[in-house]
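Progress against Task 2.4 (sequence-to-structure conversion) is shown through the following example record, which the project officer requested during the mid-term review.
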Amino acid sequence: MPDTPLLQVTNLTVTTADGSAELVRGVSFDLPRHGTLGIVGESGSGKSLTCRSILGIVPEGCVITTGEIIFDGVDVTALTHKEWLPLRGNRISAVFQDPGSYLNPSIPVGKQLAEALRATSSLGRRAAAARAVELFASMGLHDPEFVYRQYPFELSGGMLQRVLIAIALSGDPDLLIADEATTALDVTVQAEVLDVIADLRASRNLALVLVSHDLAVVAQVCDTIIVMRDGVIVEAGATTDVLGDPQHEYTRLLVDSHATYGIEKYLAGELAGV
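Structure tokens generated for the chain above:
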């Protein structure tokens, strides 16, 4: 149904395998189709573990003990590995911090993208190579034919992240999860990659979950925000509401500590309708 949220997380609780500690507790939120959600909080707040639960890749030693994660009507917490195959990397994709860790250093990045395209479509080798070059161009990579032939060690961090975004989008997903995708980049490159993500989300009608410890990053892209601390959601709502009038002490602390990164300017523009 068009009005049904694409993603519904209800009462998600993740514990250590022995049950000795709750790492995520009672997390609930909805993400509309084509919506944008930011998840913010400091390291250890549970934001990345929440996203890995959505992707079905909870780290070893952790287990989902309660809750539902409904993606387009399907409870993904009940899926087997085989049942996940048509979803992960196709309808749900992700981009993580440190893109070099997710690329094979001995294969040119273009060939890695082309192989991802062939795995998710009926494209032949030549057509996949041509499509890979087109995707690199859409990421704002200059001279995409040259980039296609480059190895990961020959590219900058910002270029590698764009390559990884291209691979994540190769299956034309409905949902993209960007987990600290710009954290390791310098401020200028970070802004450029965020612009790429925002433009691609709009042009492809993607739903987006953007995870960051930086409120300014989330404010640039997301319509709604949830704030996590110690594994629970302490505040949630529209971006302008949460950042403009934070109700929880922890959110107020985050806003105050990030004021110098442009949140006040963002809010002034949004509230003025700019």
